[in-house]
Batch of 4 targets.
Target 1
Amino acid sequence: MPALERLVREQADLAEATLPEGRTLPALVAAEHRPFLDALIAVQELRLRAVRREGGKLIRRGANPAVLGGLRVLAREYGRARAARRRARQGLSDDSRRRP
């Protein structure tokens, strides 16, 4: 399956090249939606790592991101969303606390 390995690697390289562009999307939406987009992008990055790890074996089984990694992403972004809601209730700007 060297051809399949090469195809998976090339497609993963292409996805990896475009994923950083997605990191700019959260800045384009309302503050309360940013944690969701950050989580969505982070989970796709985890999935890309899983695809790379599986390589040509994808033909026989899928490539799911590590469960613990996904849970960490969701917990982090859930915490950010709750903090943003609290700040919004207090009248503080989420932009001033946005991570780079």
Note: Residues 4 and 22 are 27 Å apart (CA to CA).
Target 2
Amino acid sequence: MLSFSFLFLRSDAALQGALRVAVAARRPFVLRALLISRGPRAFARALSDLSGHAIADALSLLGAADRAAVSSRLPQAARQRLLDAAPDREWRSTPVPTPPWSLLVMR
């Protein structure tokens, strides 16, 4: 069973480890919780050190708006690895309005 203790970890290494576990376990709700708790910029930064296939797997588990918010913040090198790993998928980020993150955080 996955624990939500990752929500209290602040290092990029902890976030990246939690991302790896959530992707391997195919847990989109955990990925979404990580995205909400850390924001799309930190989420993209943590994804940027992963392989193109791992990035593709993570993005495929997110909804369209979240996927666009994260993929638009990926560094160019990570975006290129993503395109090389999954050239048949449409990964170009189109501007999608996203709701304010503060409204999505559980209170």
Note: Residues 97 and 104 are 14 Å apart (CA to CA).
Target 3
Amino acid sequence: MIKKIVFTLFAALCLFVAYYGYYLLYWSTEVTNLSAQKITQVTVNLPGEEVVLTDIEPLSSVHVTHRAADADGGYHYHITFASGASVEGGCGYVTPGLFDEKLTLIVNSPLQISCEFTP
């Protein structure tokens, strides 16, 4: 009976460590397109990682999980619209060891981009 309890507690601990370990190693990026134009490509660069999202329809969102940053630096983005217009910029600062970092780029128009961070 005690072996069964110990095994159950050990299994629960392993699941807990695996679940939270995943969030230490992986972050997420989301692009919300509130503009009237289709976004053909968004490239987000952060230290040691490049994230590319494609074909984001107006009034929709796309989400991707990616490897966490392995060095200090900022988020830099390049957004290309179906019209051929493009915009680039940067926002935020990342350091290794942040827990479950999520960047949301909100595109209201080709000239109005905002960033939200959710730890």
Note: The helical segments are 2-25.
Target 4
Amino acid sequence: MGMFLVTGIVNKLSINKRSIKEEYNLKHVTLALEREININKYDLTIDKEQYIWQLKPDNLNGDDLVPFLQAQYSMYDPERALKLNEEIAINLKGKLKNEILQMTENGKGFSRCAKLIHINHYIRIPEISFNSIEIDYELLTFFVDGKIIMECYDNILFYFERLIRLQVQNYPIADCVKVAITS
């Protein structure tokens, strides 16, 4: 299995308590996570072995997800977006978080890229130490680009350009950006 570039919504993140050094506390970890995602959209549960942040149900529903995904796919590949956007609207309208996750787990996601995957990532708490803490992210993916597609790069670079250009209200020069790979 090769390497893939994935983009997704963090459904759940967990940290094994043993990976947290003694000099850290939950407040330090939470502050570090706030640099990564909006932690306020997650509920924290603590069990014997882990800290687990789960996306609150009202933050993931089909009615809000449809326009978000349609915008992402339109920026990524405008030609294919028309077909994908129709498929997304049909599959997600009116769905609640548990229904969306169940569709994805059953292999009947809102698009061919929709999967629940786990990735490991490390964060640092520089205020205390330069040691890293490992986080397990459960992502609801909406883009998955593999090696074959990445050899072309076209769509993902175009997507990055579009994301940067969204900042044009704050930075007028943003709509003059080009992203490329060069030697």
Note: The first strand starts at residue 5 and ends at 16.
